Amino acid sequence: MLITLVIRHKRMGKVKELKQLARSALKGRYWEAVLAYAILCLPSLIEIVQKIYFTVALIIERGFGFYLYTTTVVNTPKVINILSFLYLLCTVTFLLGYNSYNLKLIKNEPASVTNLFDYTKFYIETIWLGLNIFWKAFLWSIGSWVTLFLISWGFHITPYITLLGLIIPLIMMLPYLLSNYVIVENPYLSVQELFQESARLMEGNKWNFILLLLSFIGWFILGYLTFGLVNILVAPYLSASLAAFYLDTKESHPITTILE
Length: 260
Fold this sequence. Notes:
Structural class: mainly alpha
Oligomer: single chain
């Protein structure tokens, strides 16, 4: 019991250390980081502004009491949806550039919003990595849902299926979640090598990763209540913390022959 408490304390201490490192890196550069994230997620930002506009209009028209019992439905014009899709398709490499920006911040290296454009020449590699991650997540999701459905059919635990169907794929995808950071520093690795290196870095660190995300749970809830507006403001903090997590795992794990 005592050993468990000591381990838990060390892990929470590590999370606090990583978040402190992220705050220090963002000091004096926070709004630049917000701008970088806003460019990365421009379609989502437009959707958030739409939701806020229609919600305010609903409250003014019907009153706040009516709003509490009503779900705001925003009918986005098809042309906006098409433009958003095209934007995402054209800027898919911005995620790698954004991760590069955050890694530079944590390492105290020169960084700017222009880092978003650093990986445009790796467009095909980025698409291929994204498709492989999506495919793995899809297979785990299908496998989980089918297995849980068969179990629930026999033991009548249907209410828990939805929750487990979401949690199991997320847990199984944990080893591959650092791939988008590994590719930033090693863009010429194959997808299999990226997954292999990500899984190696995650060995013994999965719970630390989960604790880091859980430490932002209050912000996530507040973001939900504000239609995602707070998420845009806290995203730089979370992104810098994840970059710090990646660099910390690199320090605690020797480099493999793949990257030598």
